[in-house]
């Protein structure tokens, strides 16, 4: 089966992990710090806080921004459930902003309309979590202006988008947001097995997130309510978690990160080749926004005839092509249904889901495999 996404592990990655296994630290130690420095350097952010998943990073990001009971967090319905769940962990309500079906990203038109209504009703969200779907950045200049006008925080869910950019500005520089979160799950662009990272330019947010990832414990005497008993002393000043990344994972991350631009370039080439080979078939790729560079986490097409999606999906699987669908709208999950969401509330995300199909795209996909994917798709669509 040709997978829709897959990690690329090389001998140098294996060696980097073995070196840590033979060192003094297995859990969070000096290699995590080095990975944080390498990543914040790569994306041009001041601070980075490594965690054991992007889900944990989203959770501590929400907490650091003060999200709690009585607050509402908005995100896209066209995402993985973690983008919404992080607000629920904090006891906050979740609401969604419908998407622009040409890109799968949050619609800034829908966002502005929803904010106007929210302002009249006195319920502006505490935070917005835009998701850079498939690796293509959202319209962050507009989102940042709206955040300023209406007064809400912004956490970019860049799980798909390490290596993406607006012009020369890398996703992760946090020029348009308070915090940006990356995922290092093996299907993503760079992997640590499980792992995530929150980056920010705000020192207080970084300190708060790093405390929350490790039990809410501090060794900073300035934060304690009395003088330390000695150099062993620490205090737990709030309720935190064990969300730490291991040095083993960080070593893999550093090694992988050194190939980021190579990975994104190969993904971009494969995407351009799909574009050429698929032209003329009854399906369309996502629109590309001018001035932005996608990281190409996913290659998504929309079928002209959604009624045939299931049959096309099954045909491709039968031909050894590991297709996938991104995403079942989050508001249609039973957990969110029980909170009052229902079919018809976010029609653009629902119709996007009905016609979307994700074709295999990863750096080890060969031209021959890709041609096989396209042949199988052509057969299915022309049947
Ligand atoms: C993968 C993903 C996550 C969760 O990442 P983990 O590292 O698996 O916790 C969150 N949001 C989006 C959009 C994702 O694709």
UniProtKB/TrEMBL annotation:
GO terms for molecular function: pyridoxal phosphate binding; transaminase activity. GO terms for biological process: polysaccharide biosynthetic process. Keywords: Aminotransferase, Pyridoxal phosphate, Transferase. It comes from the Bacteria. It is an enzyme of class 2 (transferase). The active site is at 188 (proton acceptor). Its EC number is 2.6.1.92. Transmembrane segments: none annotated. InterPro entries: DegT/StrS_aminotransferase, PseC, PyrdxlP-dep_Trfase, PyrdxlP-dep_Trfase_major, PyrdxlP-dep_Trfase_small. Pfam families: DegT_DnrJ_EryC1. The modification N6-(pyridoxal phosphate)lysine is found at residue 188. Belongs to the DegT/DnrJ/EryC1 family. PANTHER family: DTDP-4-AMINO-4,6-DIDEOXYGALACTOSE TRANSAMINASE (PTHR30244:SF34), TRANSAMINASE (PTHR30244). This is UDP-4-amino-4, 6-dideoxy-N-acetyl-beta-L-altrosamine transaminase. It comes from Guyparkeria halophila.
């Amino acid at each position: 089966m040709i997978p829709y996404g897959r990690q690329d592990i090389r001998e140098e990655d294996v060696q980097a992990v073995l070196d840590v296994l033979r060192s003094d630290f297995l859990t969070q130690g000096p290699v995590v710090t080095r990975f944080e420095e390498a990543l914040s350097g790569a994306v041009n952010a001041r601070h980075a806080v490594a965690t054991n998943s992007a889900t944990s990073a989203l959770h501590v990001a929400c907490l650091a921004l003060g999200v709690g009971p009585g607050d509402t967090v908005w995100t896209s319905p066209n995402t993985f459930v973690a983008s919404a769940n992080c607000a629920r962990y904090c006891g906050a309500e979740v609401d969604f902003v419908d998407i622009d079906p040409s890109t799968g990203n949050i619609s800034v038109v829908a966002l502005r309309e929803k904010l106007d209504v929210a302002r009249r009703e006195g319920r502006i969200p505490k935070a917005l979590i835009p998701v850079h779907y498939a690796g293509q950045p959202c319209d962050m200049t507009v989102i940042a202006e709206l955040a300023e006008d209406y007064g809400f925080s912004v956490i970019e869910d860049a799980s798909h988008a390490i290596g993406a950019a607006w012009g020369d500005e890398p996703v992760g520089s946090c020029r348009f947001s308070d915090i940006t979160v990356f995922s290092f799950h093996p299907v993503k662009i760079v992997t640590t097995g499980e792992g995530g990272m929150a980056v920010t330019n705000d020192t207080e947010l970084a300190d708060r997130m790093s405390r929350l990832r490790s039990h809410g414990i501090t060794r900073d005497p300035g934060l304690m309510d009395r003088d330390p008993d000695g150099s062993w002393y620490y205090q737990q000043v709030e309720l935190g978690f064990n969300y730490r990344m291991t040095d083993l994972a960080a070593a893999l991350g550093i090694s992988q990160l050194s190939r980021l631009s190579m990975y994104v370039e190969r993904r971009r080439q494969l995407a351009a080749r799909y574009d050429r080979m698929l032209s003329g078939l009854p399906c369309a790729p996502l629109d590309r926004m001018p001035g932005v560079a996608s990281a190409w986490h996913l290659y998504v097409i929309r079928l002209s005839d959604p009624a045939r999606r299931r049959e096309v999906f099954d045909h491709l699987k039968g031909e050894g092509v590991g297709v996938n669908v991104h995403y079942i709208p989050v508001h249609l999950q039973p957990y969110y249904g029980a909170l009052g969401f229902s079919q018809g509330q976010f029609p653009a995300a629902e119709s996007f889901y009905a016609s979307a199909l994700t074709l295999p795209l990863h750096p080890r996909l060969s031209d021959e495999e890709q041609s096989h994917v396209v042949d199988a798709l052509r057969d299915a669509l022309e049947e």
